[in-house]
Design goal:
Blueprint: E1 2-7, E2 12-17, H1 24-28, E3 33-38, H2 39-45, E4 53-57, H3 66-78, E5 86-91, H4 93-105, E6 111-116, H5 119-125, E7 130-135, E8 138-145, E9 150-153, H6 163-180, H7 182-196, H8 200-220, H9 235-245, H10 249-266, H11 272-284, H12 295-305, E10 312-318, E11 324-330, H13 331-340
Parallel strand pairs: 2-9, 3-4, 3-5, 5-6, 6-9
Antiparallel strand pairs: 1-2, 7-8, 10-11
This protein binds adenosine-5'-diphosphate and zinc ion (ZN).
């Protein structure tokens, strides 16, 4: 078991990797607790939940909606929740976003924690205090920065995660290595097979390491004015790919990271052989690297996402493996590269 403490201006957040869902009760400290989960997690793990009120949301992004937020707030009121109540999200990124958002607005904010059950939530979504819901197809357009009191990452729960969701989490884990950890990148090159086979002795170390990278970036820049932008590696192009193709988030981000690697080579920041290594690693984790859509369609969505007609976008480029730089890139230059590769 490993505890990672994220220290921020007005609170700290403990991420406990290797802790067990069965011990959640100890973290509740006898407070009146309300649990938010989704139907899949509820079906598999409900009997291991402590004895609390439980709200079961539908699985999937569509639950990250303001009407669901209102429904949960109503449910909290009906069951007598007040400012001293405690909220716990048990689930993947969707549940964590939803629970974190509700906790930060209900009665102007109540304390909360997470049991992150998906790989993506354990290394990314549950860490850093961003809680958002979607509106009219725009992701996370309504949200807050509020830190959970604790994040429990129970590694055993990953064994029931569907393969597609596991690979989704791997994309963000590889992203963290590309941002600031060359040694971890080499480790993944060597151990892709046991990691894909979810060998438990490899997973705890991997999750702890990756969560630590995310925590360290967030500590430096909680509100995303600079350093935290690095976590957007692969996401500018990736989000547009996700919208156009309907590929999963992780697959789209993998294609986005490959795009960033290509552009970094063109700009002389990354060597050709390093680009090859990055693409090979993504492929060895069953992640795609080629854009299956029409580049002009993807570019149009990117523009709309950024609400830009001119000027530049902050783009995350790779300066070797395990180091990134945030660079403003002229929109027309990006378009030329996206459409014609030069
Ligand atoms: P993410 O964590 O990738 O942001 P979700 O919260 O939508 O996204 O979780 C992905 C899917 O995996 C959902 O259908 C969710 O119900 C399911 N899920 C999450 N954790 C587990 C688990 N430990 N076992 C089985 N299914 C899970
Ligand atoms: Zn992401």
């Amino acid at each position: 078991m490993e505890k990672i403490t994220v220290r921020l201006q007005n609170r700290q957040s403990d991420i406990i990797v290797g802790e067990c869902l069965n011990h959640l009760d100890e973290y509740l400290k006898k407070r009146i607790t309300f649990i938010i989960t989704d139907r899949n997690v509820n079906e598999i793990y409900r009997e291991r939940f402590p004895d609390c009120y439980v709200y079961v949301a539908e699985p999937g992004e569509k639950s990250k909606d303001i009407t669901v937020v209102a429904d949960i707030c109503r449910w909290l009121l009906e069951n007598g929740a007040d400012r001293s109540s405690f909220l716990v999200g048990i689930g993947g990124g969707v549940v964590c976003d939803l629970a974190g958002f509700v906790a930060s607005v209900f009665m102007r904010g109540i304390n909360f924690g997470f049991v992150a059950t998906s790989l993506l939530a354990q290394v990314d979504a549950a860490i850093g205090g961003k809680n958002g819901v979607d509106l009219d197809g725009y992701k996370n357009i309504i949200g807050t920065f509020t830190q959970p009191e604790f994040v429990i990452c129970d590694i055993d729960l990953l064994m029931t995660l569907p393969e597609k969701e596991y690979v989704n989490g791997m994309a963000e884990i590889i992203k963290h290595a590309l941002i600031q950890d060359f040694d971890q990148f080499v480790h993944f090159e060597e151990f892709s097979v046991p990691i894909m086979a979810r060998e438990i002795n490899k997973l705890e170390h991997m999750v702890a390491h990756s969560a630590k990278i995310k925590a360290s970036v967030v500590e430096k820049d909680e509100l995303e004015h600079g350093e935290r932008r690095k976590l957007n590696l692969g996401h500018t192009w990736g989000h547009a790919i996700e919208k156009v193709t309907g590929l999963s988030h992780g697959e789209s981000v993998a294609i986005g990271m490959a795009f960033s690697a290509n552009l970094s080579v063109k700009k002389g920041l990354l060597q050709e052989h390093e680009r090859e290594r990055i693409l090979n690693l993504l492929t060895s984790f069953d992640l795609p690297v080629k854009n299956p859509a029409d580049p002009p369609d993807v570019f149009d969505v990117l523009l709309k996402d950024k609400k830009k007609e001119g000027g530049s976008v902050h783009f995350i480029l790779m300066k070797g493996i395990g180091n990134v730089v945030v660079e403003p890139i002229d929109i027309m230059e990006l378009k030329k590269f996206a459409l014609y590769g030069d």
